[in-house]
Design brief:
mainly alpha, 0% strand
Length: 259
């Protein structure tokens, strides 16, 4: 099952769970009224307001964090493209006979880096491309060092090797960001739990009324479920409906310029 299916299933489960929690809350509230239990509506309203405020705050921070990380991932793609392009141009500082094999390795390396992210959410294929890219790094560096030593040019050595180091660092940063730069799972668990508990409290408050407005109930549950789905989709932009593939065009254009 792909990530999009998991996120959709989780959001649908939250939607149904919220509807069930509201109905359970209504039943408990109505039973309390039938049994003649007295309730402090003012205090209950303050508690409900605090709970809903906490849920709104958690949703806002989670959504804001996911959106900012999406922008950060886009910037990382641009930074990697700039680093590869700079290093490729600085190959001109090497002796003419040393350039063709390095340029060929650069083209293979960029193809591998493109495959790492374009093959997601197929983790097996993406991991194979990552291994290939790392192997090409281990070939590019010693070959570049040897070519710099053969040139005997200090400026060429300094400029090219520093550009290669930045290219490899940007690749590592982008790869690790895609893997580990996510909120702890407990944040999402808390978000789901708070949504269900808020629904239970809302249903309990509605239990004192015999009238039932299904439109508001369904609308409330649907809005929260859709919002959570969008948060999950933004958090994993290579796996769901929201994608960052368009920014990869920068790397594609760079690759075309290497012909």
């Amino acid at each position: 099952m792909g990530f999009a299916s998991v996120a959709l299933s989780a959001s649908l489960g939250l939607f149904l769970g919220m509807l069930l929690a509201i109905e359970v809350g209504r039943h408990l509230g109505a039973r309390g009224v039938d049994e003649g239990q007295k309730s402090d509506k003012q205090s209950a309203g303050l508690i409900d307001g605090a709970i809903f405020g906490l849920m709104g705050l958690l949703i806002a921070f989670t959504f804001s964090g996911a959106a900012s990380r999406l922008d950060h991932r886009r910037n990382l793609v641009m930074n990697e493209a700039n680093a590869i392009g700079t290093a490729y141009l600085r190959l001109n500082l090497l002796p003419t006979e040393s350039q063709p094999p390095l340029r060929d390795l650069f083209r293979q390396y960029l193809d591998a880096r493109l495959d790492v992210f374009q093959k997601l959410p197929d983790m097996v294929a993406a991991e194979a491309s990552l291994v290939r890219a790392n192997n090409l790094q281990s070939q590019i560096w010693p070959m570049a060092v040897k070519a710099c030593q053969a040139s005997g040019s200090v400026p060429a050595t300094t400029l090219l090797l520093s550009a290669l180091n930045e290219m490899f660092d940007s690749a590592t940063l982008r790869t690790m960001t895609s893997r580990v730069m996510h909120p702890p799972v407990v944040i999402f668990i808390m978000l789901f739990a708070l949504a269900l508990f808020s629904s239970l409290m809302a249903g309990y408050s509605m239990g004192s009324s015999r009238d039932s407005n299904r439109f508001h109930v369904v609308g409330f549950a649907a809005i929260i479920a859709v919002t959570v789905y969008v948060i999950l989709d933004i958090e994993y932009p290579r796996a769901g409906l929201i994608r960052v593939d368009a920014v990869d065009q920068v790397l594609v254009e760079l690759r075309n310029s290497m012909q």
